Amino acid sequence: MIDPLSEIITLLRPRAVFTKSISGAGRWGVRYSDFGHPGFCTVLEGACRLAVDGQAPLALEAGDFVLLPTTPGFTMSGFEPVTPTFIDPKAPPVPGDEVRHGDPDGPASVRLLGGYFVFETEDAGLLVSLLPAQVHVRGAERLLILVRLLTEEATEQRPGRDLVLQRFVEVLLIEALRLTQRPDAPPGLLRGLADPRLAEAIRAMHGNPARSWTVAELAKAAGLSRSALFERFTRNVGLPPMEYLLAWRMAMAKDLLRSHNVEIADVAERVGYGSASTFSTAFSRHVGQAPGRYARAVAVVEG
Fold first, then answer.
1. pTM score > 0.90 for this model?
2. For 123-142, how does the pLDDT look when each residue is reduced to its tens digit (9 = 90+)?
3. What b-and-e string marks burial along 103-131, b requiring 16 or more CB atoms within 10 Å of the CB?
4. Which of 32, 15, 23 is nearest to 105 (CA)?
5. Which domains does the chain have, with CATH numbers?
6. Residues sharing a CB contact under 8 Å with residue 96, sequence separation 6 or more, in sequence order
């Protein structure tokens, strides 16, 4: 069975960059500006407060896991009022095994494992828009184990380290996101997949993106009327079905142009266009440059 979530995570190509032990003691608070890259943390012991811009504040406790696919600005602190210390997330990491906030010598009121990673695809914005802005999971032992393994691997220089880290991050992402795949999730791919009818339409698109799908055919696959599919899909996924299909086709096309030595006509055929010229017109309109120029620009950047 086609798994759209796994396909999107694979296309994003996440890789680990930095992990760190973090603790807070006494009266403490830190404010991070918008970062852009995905960030995560899990609480090992104690508790703290997390306020992410645009989201309701959270009281985090031991066993909690938080994932921010784009890491907007946020404040993390203890529970006492405090003026937070500003930290530039793009500054070089502080040397040492642990980052301490607040009293450097007092007993820690919270200990966390945190880190961030990057998506290698430059089309990440489009795909990440289909994911929740904030993922908060409580009491997920599997996630805690994954973060510990990820942190351990990141601190060692073992053979195959980069590949292991990439796989750990992929599994971490999928495990965290599948736990938020429910009908009350924010609009996006996870909420769409939580609806059995919409999931059939989404799997149909991912299973055969080269097919000349119509709303009527997708509605039949979902067992809905055309109007019901359009309304339900738009409300739950955040995009009308044909816009979602176009976004997925363009993401696939970028990946093919970036990763493989293939002719534009072959790319066009694999993503559902009858000719290279029709595909080039659609790609140029969507991306802002012709596919050949895009492929050459990527080749220069990646050297």
1. no
2. 677 677 778 888 899 988 88
3. eeeeebbbbbbbbbbbbebebbebbbbbb
4. 23
5. 4-178 (2.60.120.280), 189-302 (1.10.10.60)
6. none
